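hey
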């Protein structure tokens, strides 16, 4: 495999293209278990029938772990939104439809979203009162088993030249409540400073899924607290405000 065509750089990883293969190479100190879990998530999502890049192998290159998948030709929805601002609403509408198609799927062996969020809330540095409120709220939320992407944003959707949509980056996939997945996407738009799109997204999701806005809002502090554990330093202050149940309500 050749690593002379770098196509993206992410935190703790670099992504290369070699012909029809996409090679994600992780930093040497990246958690081995997290890498293997990401590959396993991707393999399990393949089995749902969703259009995603197929895993080819997990290997070690120059002492670093790597996941090799199909390379998907095309542009991300983020790129298309930036290149065609007049069509942004149209792209956003499709974006929500793709997310709802994910939520229609089931994958019984995926990790539980509730369990993952409970662990993250416990491992954060929130005060005991806030942790208690968040754990209590999380425990009271309905238990669902829908496939949730966990990091669904326009940069993780590739539109091919023949207009097929592929969803990438399944590292955070779980099974759980779709409203939590929507809350995460809303926060991602907000963290990017695009509050107008965040509100449009939320309205579209609630209308198309027949979900009450108040129900998704109840997930926001939980999701924000979960994200703050490994969130970027520059996002932490905003996430901590969302995570404060008292302030939020």
């Amino acid at each position: 495999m050749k690593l002379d065509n770098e196509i993206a750089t992410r935190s703790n990883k670099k992504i290369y293209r070699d012909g029809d293969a996409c090679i994600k190479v992780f930093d040497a100190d990246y958690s081995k278990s997290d890498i293997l879990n990401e590959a396993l998530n991707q393999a399990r999502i393949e089995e749902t029938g969703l259009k995603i890049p197929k895993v080819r192998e997990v290997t070690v290159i120059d002492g670093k772990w790597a996941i090799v998948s199909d390379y998907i030709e095309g542009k991300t929805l983020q790129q298309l939104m930036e290149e065609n601002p007049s069509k942004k609403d149209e792209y956003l509408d499709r974006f929500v439809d793709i997310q709802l198609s994910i939520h229609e799927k089931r994958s019984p062996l995926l990790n539980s979203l509730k369990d993952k969020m409970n662990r993250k809330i416990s491992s954060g540095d929130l005060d005991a009162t806030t942790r208690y409120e968040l754990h209590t709220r999380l425990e009271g939320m309905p238990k669902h088993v829908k496939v949730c992407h966990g990091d669904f944003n326009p940069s993780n959707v590739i539109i091919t030249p023949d207009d097929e949509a592929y969803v990438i980056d399944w590292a955070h996939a779980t099974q759980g409540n779709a409203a939590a997945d929507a809350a995460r996407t809303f926060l991602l738009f907000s963290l990017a400073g695009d509050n107008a799109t965040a509100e449009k997204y939320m309205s579209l999701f609630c209308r198309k899924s027949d979900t009450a806005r108040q129900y998704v809002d109840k997930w926001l502090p939980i999701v924000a607290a979960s994200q703050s554990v490994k969130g970027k330093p520059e996002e932490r202050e905003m996430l901590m405000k969302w995570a404060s149940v008292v302030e939020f309500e």
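The mean pLDDT is 94. The CA atoms of residues 92 and 197 lie 8 Å apart.
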